[in-house]
Amino acid sequence: MDIHQFRQLFDKAYMPLCMYALRITGDTRMAEDAVQQAMMAVWERLQGGMTPDNVKAYLYRSVRNEALKIVPSVAWQSIDASTVDVTDDTIDTSERDAALWNAVDALPPRCREVFLAVKRDGMSHADIAAQMGISVKTVEAQITKAMTRLREALAPYRRRSVRPFFLPFL
After folding, report:
1. N or C: which end of the chain has fewer CB within 10 A?
2. Which residues have CB under 8 Å from 29's CB, separation 6+?
3. For the segment 39-70, what is each residue's pLDDT rounded down to a tens digit?
4. Distances in Å between the alpha carbon of 136 and those of 85, 111, 112, 125?
5. What is the number of alpha carbons within 13 Å of residue 98 lying toward its C-beta?
6. What is the distance between the alpha carbons of residues 6 and 64, in angstroms, rounded to a whole number?
7. Could you tell me which of 86, 135, 90 has the C-alpha nearest to residue 114?
8. How far is C-alpha 47 from the geometric centre of its chain's CA atoms?
9. What per-residue confidence (pLDDT) applies to 32?
10. Mean residue pLDDT across the chain
11. Whole-angstrom Cα distance, residue 129 to residue 138?
12. What is the pLDDT of residues 77-128, one digit of tens each?
């Protein structure tokens, strides 16, 4: 695998791997550190001539190992064992959660702001309208727009049996 192919793999896998690591660590910074450490280690192994049969599964296993190294020992008791196992379900769930966050990031700024105020901050439509200087109907329209776009972005994941969404920020 050359550097260009690895960069493409990194770009495609980074967010799902972070979502997977976040389920283990419970901390965004630790999750990103685990993914970056794992990606560097995998790159070094690939350059050393190692060729895994399934690169995606190998990446997830490497991220799992790095995440478990990073998690403080007192937090180990709270880790769900089914989260740590690397299965097709785990990979699908991480990819779906990443697709959701990418879709939220892709919302128009005002739409994203209204959506996050409702879902993350728990604000009422009336409070958002008053704070943003818009009507309640506009808030409702922005929520409808956000939900429509998110449903479209998550359509490929509807028929798969995956775990519930992991939305630590919503």
Report:
1. N
2. none
3. 999 999 888 888 888 888 889 899 999 998 88
4. 45, 13, 16, 6
5. 18
6. 19
7. 135
8. 28
9. 92
10. 83
11. 8
12. 555 555 566 677 777 778 888 888 889 999 999 999 999 999 888 899 999 9
What the block records as the tokens of 12 is 């495609």
Q: What is the token pair recorded at 77?
A: 């008791």
Radius of gyration of the chain (CA): 19
Residue 159, both tokens: 């028929």
CA nearest 157: which of 107, 112, 108, 101? 101
The C-alpha atoms of residue 18 and residue 99 are separated, in whole angstroms, by 12
Question: Which amino acid is residue 113, in one-letter code?
Answer: E
Distance between first and last Cα of the chain? 38
By the 10 Å C-beta count (0-12 exposed, 13-18 middle, 19+ buried), 115 is classed as buried
Classified as helix, coil or strand, 78 is helix
DSSP 106-147: HS-HHHHHHHHHHHTT---HHHHHHHHT--HHHHHHHHHHHH
Task: Say what the pTM is.
Answer: 0.61
- pLDDT value of residue 163: 57
